[in-house]
Amino acid sequence: MRKPFVAGNWKMHGSKAFVLNLVTGLNSKSGELKGVDVAICPPSLYIDYTLRSLSTDTISIGAQNMAEEPHQGAFTGEGSASMLKDLGCRYVILGHSERRAIYGETNAEVANKVRVALEAGITPILCVGETLQERESGVMESVISEQLDAVLSLVGIAAFKAVVIAYEPVWAIGTGVTASPAQAQDVHAFIRAKLAQLDAVVAENIIIQYGGSVKPGNAKELFGQPDIDGGLIGGASLDADDFIAICKAAEV
Ligand code: PEP
User: Fold this and answer.
1) What is the 3-state secondary structure (H, E, C) of 155-194?
2) C-beta of 9 in contact with ligand 1 (< 6 A)
3) I want to staple 60 with a disulfide (CB 3.0 to 4.6 A). Which of 90, 146, 220, 231 is the partner?
4) Which architecture, in CATH terms, is 5-69+77-249?
5) 169 CB less than 6 Å from ligand 1?
6) Residue 127's closest CA among 251, 1, 234, 238?
7) What is the pLDDT of residue 107?
């Protein structure tokens, strides 16, 4: 039985006042969370402040990205896996479509970051997903396969025991357009079946989140699908009431 996992991706939003207000709201409602793992991923600059503001251990902290270089060095502007670990991060989002599209991150770079995160003892939330054009032109499955294969060939299927996958159709991220529960389920089942060809136990146990315009009003139906194990939440994670409502919708 997989325990659902919901993570909030705050993207590049916030200020100290905003973080304090949001985390105060999460603190006060965290007692309502049962049967679901929860994490929030603030901008790196606010990770420490967020952790200091959190008064509950039912919510973990993650980062939104990290460098390929695992430790320290002359990499101006970067932050490493060992630094995230030192700060207290349990998760790191890798390969988000905004990183791929805006910053040109390749499948090979994402795979290398997954390797580095695993070596540092941080759980990668590996994002995969197709654009609308890729879906409409019938290459959705091959795009997602290539995204997964790059990581699989570098770290091997056994390492996926410690990986979370987030299926995020690019056309549904921040657009208000959600994949229908059936559309999302189809892709989640495809991903799980692909992994099952390599290792049935890993495939059965891996958490596959859905991400893309999840809101309190659509979360329950999405998370009720057999292969959807919670969500990666962008916009709605910036509101404590909405985020907690979404987390509760994933509870088993
Ligand atoms: C995301 O950024 O990962 C995401 C799913 O965003 P939103 O929920 O706003 O679509």
Assistant:
1) HCHHHHHHCEEEECCHHHCCCCCCCCHHHHHHHHHHHHHH
2) yes
3) 90
4) Alpha-Beta Barrel (3.20)
5) no
6) 234
7) 98
